[in-house]
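call fold(seq) -> tokens
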Amino acid sequence: MEDMDSQINSLMSKFTVIDNYIGECEYKLAISTLKDLLQSTVNTSVKDPLCYLDLYYIACYLIDCGGDAGDVESIDLADSILSGEHHEKIIDVVGKELMFYSQANALSLKLGYENAGKANFNNIEPRIRLKKLHWKSYCANKVDVELPRLQTLVNLAIELKTQFRFTEALEWVNQVLIFSEYIPEAYIARSEIIKDLSFASNHLSERMLLDIKDGYQRALNIPNIREGLKSVAENGLDWTLNQLEEFDDADSTSEDADKHQTEHEFSQLSDYRKFCIFSNLTLSEHALYCQCAGSSKDDLTVCATIGLYGDRVIPMEFVVNRIKSEFSFARNLYFECVTLQDKPKLAEELFLLELGNNEYLGLEAEKLRTIYRLCFGILDKIAVAISNFFEIPKITTGKKKRAVKVDFLNVWNLDLDNRREFFNEFKNPGLVALYSISSDLNDRKQGEWDSLKAVRNALEHNFLVIREGESDIDSYGIYDYFAEDIKIIDEQEFISGLKILLSLTRSAIFSFTYAVRYQLTYGEDYSGSKVYPLLNYLHQKET
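ret:
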């Protein structure tokens, strides 16, 4: 034990010199010393766990020093350590969460130098790899709420924002702020997400600006905030205050009154609507950042309240109507399952044989399975809609060049027939977001959630067994009989996947709406076309 303690102390003492160099901003000296440490570690004849821990720390310091010094070569070296021949051994020592977290930091810094700015179809692929690393780090530890897990969620939210997936970005950063009020990056990220959301939605309100201001101010009030973050928050706050000058009543008194009014209005909402808001399942732009009476309805539309031109407005509102209706049904089924409300008497009349295989059956199980089908159906409808709206070239197959049936994963095929350039010419943030979402579900891209697609396929084409409890009993050998045509999944894994699928589907609905709105606002010639303001020409349908 003493020998192990002395080894750890020796390991830590190696990096004391590095810490001193970093404190004095002597990054070149720090990097040079780290390279010497790396060489001696690699040359060590005995490769024990402390050796691999040593390699991990060297890589992390190289990432930090390389980032501060703008030294991409050092970041590349760190990445080669983490991704190289000792990758699995390092994971055995530090765990998957820290490994993927550090690899994501390295890639994020590299992309910051090589692909500054927002994602587009030309630079999206490395950003998708970065997103995947954030997802992998998150998935490696879904229990603890300590750093670096919370920092991982902040980083994920920032990258989702870069890929224009605003609803998910807000969802994750809000989750971080529930657990900790002392992460300035989270407050800054939230303000930046709402700011970017205002551009995507073509709407900037006083309520949004007050939320943006609040985030920057809270970040600046956190003790010992880093200088770089402090500068970002101060610049963001100055921008927000300038925007607020256009609103006459934007003072501290009105902010306090607005807060109390919001709390009162939220208390008047139904339990179901509160559930939708807390579960991030609304289809209301206002509900993304505020819980007042304005969040009481799923009033997301292409037109919004601004009015849009062109003969394609109504067909796209038809699509939004359809997918909103289906999503609200899926959401209602989810609410019934997780709250166990209004369990129908029909469940008592259902007679099923006990077959000793622990399968989750009955009405609640069928509701959950139906949600899966509905969500993937919505995603495929979005694919059909964008295929028509953006006049995406059809993909053909076989000698007769038959058109391939469009779905959410195959509508892209960016590396086929200059399609990447085709999509990039639109310069449409919503399209980028939709492609990013599809990459999460695509097994050909090793998407982090491609298992959800496998579950859906088993639901539709084979036997999907949702297994209750931890026991894997199969008393009559049913699973062996259907070996090639059956997929088995634990109940909790199924429900966890369902939550992610609902979030991805909701994000896709917003992204589709923003993609169409953006194109109709900035990408078309409307001379002589009819304008469709929502509240004047169109009205709410009775249901």
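The chain has 23 helices and six strands.
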